[in-house]
Design goal:
single chain, alpha/beta, 2-enoyl-CoA Hydratase, Chain A, domain 1, seven-stranded mixed β-sheet, three-stranded mixed β-sheet
């Protein structure tokens, strides 16, 4: 297998998970005819994909949408009726599966890079927020669309992750209005790391993934763990303790 070839990791209906020979995995939201919208099945398949990726030996992951129209346009409105018909217990079970799937992507032990083009709306924004790094094409449109359909931005981890990226005030504005943020504004408010030309989006994401994969895998994994967990602890002392343990482990285990 050459560096540009990829092998499938698991057979899924709505997602495509592949591993390239260079150690970079690619997870594609694979519903291009429906603007890569989310379904009940997709939320469950996030867990399956994450499990396969975790065991794949990948060193970094690129998260993208199939086709040239959308990263992920949120929940497919064609399935709203089925959700509305659920009882409280059934809906809670579905909600836990959905949030668990995105959390599993976020908690992968290696860095996740989202390559965003077109809409990343509602649950699609939540998926992008689950990545560690976000690159955006000029066509990217990001929105907390939940309030427009009678839901809150307290959905799929959005209220937690968005606030930590852009601050409470900006997160409140975006969450309360549901307005669309274009690529330039997203870069300015640090919702995405940077904007790159559409034709270079995957290549830029791949180059970044390869640069990451060239470093010590143990060092990168411990760095990700420290960065993620230190968003969740409330004291400087706890942060130092986490860092000290990670560095001590790395000096004892080599790469």
């Amino acid at each position: 297998m050459t560096a540009t070839e990829a092998r499938p990791l698991v057979e899924l209906e709505t997602l495509r998970a592949e591993l390239r020979a260079d150690g970079v995995a690619v997870l594609t939201v694979n519903r291009p005819t429906r603007a890569n919208s989310q379904t009940q099945t997709m939320f469950y398949e996030h867990n399956e994909a994450a499990s396969a990726l975790r065991d794949s030996g990948a060193r970094a992951l690129i998260l993208r949408g199939a086709g040239d129209k959308a990263f992920c346009s949120g929940f497919d409105l064609a399935e709203v009726g089925a959700i509305a018909a659920m009882g409280v217990r059934e809906f809670l079970s579905f909600q836990e599966a959905a949030t668990g799937g995105l959390a599993a992507i976020r908690d992968l032990p290696f860095p996740v890079i989202a390559a965003i083009h077109g809409p990343a709306v509602g649950g699609g924004l939540a998926l992008a927020l689950a990545a560690d790094i976000r690159l955006a094409a000029p066509s990217a449109k990001l929105s907390c669309a939940f309030v427009r359909v009678g839901l809150s931005c307290g959905e799929l981890g959005t209220s937690y992750l968005l606030t930590r990226l852009v601050g409470y005030g900006r997160a409140a504005e975006l969450g309360f209005t549901g307005r669309v943020v274009d690529a330039a504004e997203a870069e300015r408010i640090r919702l995405v790391n940077r904007v790159v030309p559409s034709e270079d989006l995957f290549a830029e994401a791949h180059a970044l993934a390869v640069a990451i994969a060239g470093n010590s895998p143990g060092g990168v994994r411990m760095s990700k763990r420290a960065l993620l967990r230190n968003q969740e602890v409330t004291s400087y002392a706890a942060a130092l303790e986490l860092e000290n343990r990670g560095q001590s482990l790395l000096t004892s285990t080599g790469r």
